[in-house]
Amino acid sequence: MQNVDPTDQQNDEIEGEPLLIGLTGGIGSGKSTVAQIFEEAGYPIINADKEARFIMEHDQHVKEDLMKRFGKDLYNQDGSLNAQLLSSIVFNDKEQQSLADLNAIVHPVLLDHVFEKAGTLAEDHDVIIVDIALLFESNLEDGFDYVIGVLTNPEIRLARLMKDRGMSKEQIKSRMLTQIGDEILKEHSDFLIENNGSIEELAEAAQYLIEILPYLPNTNVE
């Protein structure tokens, strides 16, 4: 993990290429809530899940490939994605081949889309944050200057998901099996935000990063 003291940095923000920050964490970790905190602090957020949904519903080549793999019932009559059916197929596949096939179809287009959007945002912002769940699982860490991991106790994640999303324990565990464990998240993230308490405590934990992000050196600048 990085240890950066903003008082050791120059008073002005570091010149150079804008920073691209990855924000990740397991299902139920509160990653999206952390993204909202950053957004309220003025940082632009790219939500990879929303961008993926847009691509699956609007990119004709992706739609055709998904229907070939998962069937025409994957889309409703109005062209919208039957997300419930897709989730059922993907997360009931214990071999995880369906998830691998889904990622193989969507991720290349998604990444191009995300980085293109980040490039546009970089014209007006020094730091862009990408909210992306399967960052490490997809080996995308090298595409970011820094990665922020959101870490939450499994018991709390389970309780949150059952209460807020009405998911069963089996559904939650099947999704968790497709994601990296906490130890890997700790090892590979540059920064960690623990989310085991109230929203006020979470906002306080994020405040340090909110303050120092503009002062971090760009890892692509020699």
Give an overview of the whole structure.
- It is built from nine helices and five strands, in the order E-H-E-H-H-H-H-E-E-H-H-H-E-H.
- The N terminus is likely disordered.
- The chain is of the alpha/beta class.
- Helix content is 48%, strand content 11%.
- Helix 1 crosses helix 9, helix 2 packs across helix 5 and helix 3 packs antiparallel against helix 5.
Please give a handful of descriptors for the protein shown.
222 residues; alpha/beta; five-stranded parallel beta sheet; 5 strands; disordered N terminus
Strand order of the largest sheet: 2-3-1-4-5
Helix content: 40-55%
Number of strands: 5
> Can you give the mean pLDDT?
89
Alpha plus pi helix count: 9
Question: In angstroms, what is the radius of gyration?
Answer: 18 Å
Reported for the largest beta sheet, the result is: 5 strands, parallel
Order of helices and strands: EHEHHHHEEHHHEH
Report how far apart the termini are. Answer: 21 Å
Give the overall shape: globular
Sheet/helix structural class = alpha/beta
